[in-house]
Design goal:
One of its GO terms (cellular component) is membrane. Keywords: G-protein coupled receptor, Membrane, Receptor, Transducer, Transmembrane, Transmembrane helix. It holds the Pfam family 7tm_1. This protein is mainly α. It has a domain of about 325 residues: Up-down Bundle (Rhopdopsin 7-helix transmembrane proteins), CATH 1.20.1070. Helix content is about 70%, strand content about 5%. The protein is built from 15 helices and four strands. Strands 1-2 form a two-stranded antiparallel sheet. The longest helix has about 50 residues.
């Protein structure tokens, strides 16, 4: 029997046998079905909590992206997981081609939308960390990016939905033909299918490259920043330990203006340039020559440098000197400003410095969360890619596999669902505020009960 019409298929005498095979297939794949059910429950609870909790946070581009990711993951839990279980339950008798097309279209759109949103997140984090002085995304910009990602995902998934439908296969033990939801027989080996697979493959590797390059550049930038701050700490500790030395400071503001201008010219790095500093009182820190570089805000540099002039020279500043950037500033003045900046940030009364440190910690933690979400998304697809590649190259018939290998295959091809179920665990592990809000939400729910 080779007919693919649903009514004729169900009216045939072989249909009852195929339904029995469906039942047997469900029992054989019980471990993989339990795996999908566990992900379903975990994803429903986690993504619902994530969506409700992050709705309470103050508006930001990061909040918008996390809400979008949670919404897409929640739709995956509500739509793609149950339909995947339906496919397993009707492995031999999935006769409605339009249902298969709709299922595959929705699943493909959800996966592509998640990938594109993670690409937008990577670009946003790269701009915030590596290009902090440039204009950053607003919540409206992030929402616009999410809408574009959703539209592109839907458009790209339309051809895949068209190509999927009734895929027939032969059951050699019964000399019968079954129908499952997969690539339609009409498009098997067609040029259209090959072109679509090639284009989506290029898009996938391009997205992967953008995410990897963005987070690699972020890691390099953070590493360089830590090296600069370590050099500042070393210089400050070295010269704080020295005693009996009085440093004279330049008494003209022209040199200060020159350094201030050079700092403002470097908008992206915003750090004091490395300069050689002569000192004979601190040999453990590098002898007579010491190079200091600090990554500090331009406004703080200017305020502290100007304050250092006022403290070292009681004469009022002369406006005329600010327009003359021809004389250089003494290196000791830079060191004085760095020491004042460090003292400002470490003093207990420096609320502004504490607020800045807290903001930096939150930004670093947010970048870590987004990196982990991206890494989990990529890793969760690896078993799927490996299994599909092996099946295409070798031409494996899954119906001839032993039970343990059949379940391993079923779990591998469903592995991309993992990322949509465990994202809430990342928020819980990396964000104390998320955990606190979850406890508050659960306590409120218990009081209502």
């Amino acid at each position: 029997m080779t007919t693919t019409d649903g009514n004729d298929f169900r009216d045939s005498s072989d249909f009852d046998i195929l339904r029995e095979l469906d039942t047997k297939f469900v029992y054989d794949q019980l471990p993989s079905i339990m795996f999908v059910c566990a992900l379903l429950v975990m994803g429903l609870i986690g993504n619902t909590l994530a969506f409700l909790v992050y709705r309470k946070f103050s508006p930001s581009s990061t909040r918008t992206y996390i809400l979008a990711i949670s919404a897409v993951d929640l739709s995956t839990n509500l739509i793609s997981y149950p339909t995947s279980l339906v496919e397993m339950s009707f492995h031999y008798t999935f006769v409605h081609a339009w249902q298969c097309s709709l299922i595959r279209f929705v699943t493909s759109a959800q996966i592509i939308a998640s990938a594109l949103i993670l690409v937008a997140v990577a670009l946003d984090r790269h701009r915030r960390v590596c290009q902090s002085l440039k204009k950053q995304q607003t919540p409206t910009d992030a929402l616009r990016a999410v809408v574009i990602c959703a539209i592109v995902a839907g458009v790209v998934s339309i051809p895949y939905g068209v190509m999927t439908g009734n895929a027939t296969f032969t059951i050699h033990a019964y000399n019968m033909t079954g129908i499952m939801c997969s690539l339609d027989d009409r498009y098997e080996g067609s040029l259209f299918h090959v072109l679509y697979q090639s284009l989506t493959g290029v898009g996938m590797f391009t997205s992967l490259a953008i995410m990897c390059v963005s987070y690699t550049r972020i890691a390099c930038h953070v590493r360089q920043h830590r090296k600069r701050m370590a050099a500042v700490d070393q210089a400050s500790a070295c010269h704080s330990a020295s005693s009996g030395n009085t440093y004279t400071v330049a008494t003209t503001l022209s040199g200060f203006h020159k350094v201030g201008a050079s700092v403002s010219d470097e908008k992206e790095s915003s750090h004091i340039q490395d300069q050689r500093l002569h000192s004979t009182s601190c040999p453990p820190c590098g002898g007579s020559n010491l190079s200091v570089s600090a990554h500090v805000a331009t406004s703080e540099q200017s305020d502290l440098l100007l304050q250092s002039y006022h403290q070292q020279d009681n004469s009022p500043p002369k406006p005329g000197h600010l327009e003359s950037p021809n004389k250089s500033m003494t290196p000791r003045l830079q060191l004085f400003a760095l020491k004042k900046l460090k003292k400002k940030k470490t003093d207990g009364g420096g609320q502004h410095g504490q607020h800045g440190d807290k903001a930096k910690q939150m930004s670093s933690r947010t970048t870590l969360i987004m990196f982990l979400l991206t890494a989990i998304f990529i890793v969760s697809f690896m078993p799927y890619w490996a299994t599909v590649s092996v099946r295409v190259v070798i031409g494996i018939d899954i119906h001839t596999l032993p039970l343990w290998l059949l379940n391993l295959h079923a779990i591998a091809v469903q592995s991309f669902f993992i990322s949509s179920s465990v994202n809430a665990l990342v928020y819980a592990c990396c964000s104390a505020k998320f955990r606190e809000e979850c406890r508050h939400l659960c306590s409120c729910w218990q009081k209502r009960q």
